[in-house]
Amino acid sequence: MRHRFHKSGFMCKHYKIIITALLINLMFFSLPLFAASAKPILLTENQAIQLFYQRNLNLLAARYSIDQAQAQEIIASAIPNPTISVQISEISKNSNINSAALGCQKGHNVSCGPAETYAFSQLIEMAGKRGLRMQSSVIATQAAESDFRDALRILTNIVRDAYFGLLQAQKNHWLAKEIVTHYQDIVRDNRLRLQAGDIRGPDFLRINMESLRAQVDLDNAEAAIEQAQGNLAVVLNWPDITMQLAAEDKWPEIREIGQSLAREALIEKALSLRPDLQGDILRADQADKDLILANRLKYPDVTLSAGFARDPSNTVLNTGFVGVSIPIPLFYQYKGEVNKASVNLGQMHLAVEETKLAVRNDIVASLAAWKSADKVVRLYEKELVQQARQVRDRTELAYTKGIISVLEFIDAQRSYKSVMLDYHTAMINRVNAYYDLAKSIGVEPNADLSLPMVGPAKSTLSTRKK
Hints:
The protein is of the alpha+beta class and 466 residues long. 64% of the residues lie in helices and 9% in strands. The strands form two sheets. It has a four-stranded antiparallel β-sheet, with no helix packed on it. The protein is elongated and about 145 Å long.
């Protein structure tokens, strides 16, 4: 009799724990969520990238460097302005008084006035210096445009990392919510079985503990979503809408970007497309033009001048003149400029070779990562996901019929959750590997994605209630 009373006290104690846990669950699901009070902003991948183009200051700064290079083109193509000079000489109170010149009036104490000189001069650049400066500035603009495309290549993938990180967090949240709902049904059914005496109290407690753990996982998944929303909002430079951001429930379409090519063929494709390599090659070409220009600085420019003079004191009243002035590079022959341009050319060629090596390494690493990630996803989609779901459902059915123990049932539930979480991780790894490979090659997989325009931003948002 004492043993029965002790067992009854044990059950009452644990029933209090169960009731408390159920009340906590009820309170949790009855509280309105703050995120539900605002309409979520559902973004597609393209919309997120377009918003980034419109709002990101770093990308706009890269765009402004193109404007600076274009302004430098105008400066380099400018023709030196001519010089006009006017000179008044022989200025005095009574200039050229009593002069016997033909231009002077005869008479006692008559002033003939000062002399006047009007001159025009024009600098003529020799040895094609202006043309070389123009060619150099045009190449600089092309290099700036390559840098801009390279900024797009890198920064666009940063947006994608944040966007698909949010999608992965949403997937994990949906999985956690599914498991919580699933355990709620199981707990409700097993409570009836407990009342009917079909299962033991400890078995029911184990199931309820798993239900509470599932609730904790759901809380953690919600926190992960908020963190992913914050990361995306920071990348988009739009912190005001952090808690409203939501990613479309769609993994990107895997298109052919060269992943089926042999490695060497893919490397050659990347060497012809990578904008950072193109920019380095263009800068090397510019350095070559600058070296030629430095060597031609020793050829002096010519200044032509012409003018007209009127001198009342001269025997010839009106005269004209022409002249040529040439600086003689006698003491300094611009060797410093030549050496500086030569060193810069060597550095640019070295940068080209370093970038080529980096491109090769990028292709080798990203191609290997893509093949591995794609293989893992195919394995999950072909076998593991379906098998994990089947094992969970069959184990649950066997448990309800009393064929297997509660521990086997819980283990099957945990295995299903683990496989699904690993599957979501494998999917995000494949997405990242796919876009990293595209970045390494220098291609944009999404042909529908338009390049950014500098100007008033137009909203690409689609706001709807989810």
